[in-house]
């Protein structure tokens, strides 16, 4: 098996740091400690710290739970977060080691509406 030479996304990065700063701001606005938020959201306290510092790439479900515990929406959490990451095929880094990525032109797509299944004769 050949290893990819495309580097992996490093943490923290602009996206995780921006999101972490927003999370910290809302946590402080709610006047909760990291420990209180962690308890409410049923995660480890160190996870809250790592999220706020951009050292973790949280799942959408984790973020939704944190938002619920802070009394905010996902839209509020992401408001103002403008950083993006290009895909590996456009010079970006891989998000995980086993990530599939386009390193060549994609195969042409099949024509829409074409039925390639065997036609059955009416009996």
Task: Describe it.
It is built from five helices and no strands. The protein has helices at 14-29, 34-41, 45-52, 60-70, 74-78. Helix 2 (34-41) crosses helix 3 and helix 2 crosses helix 4. The longest helix has 16 residues, at 14-29. It is elongated and about 50 Å long. The model has no long low-confidence stretch (mean pLDDT 86).
Brief sketch in words of this structure:
This protein has 123 residues and is mostly helical.
Round the Cα radius of gyration to an integer and report it.
21 Å
The description of the largest β-sheet is: none
> Percent of residues in beta strands?
under 5%
Question: Portion of residues in helices?
Answer: 25-40%
Which regions contain 5 or more consecutive residues with pLDDT less than 50? none
Keywords:
123 residues, 0% strand, mainly alpha, 39% helix
What are the SSEs and their pairings?
Blueprint: H1 14-29, H2 34-41, H3 45-52, H4 60-70, H5 74-78
Helix pairs in contact: 2-3, 2-4
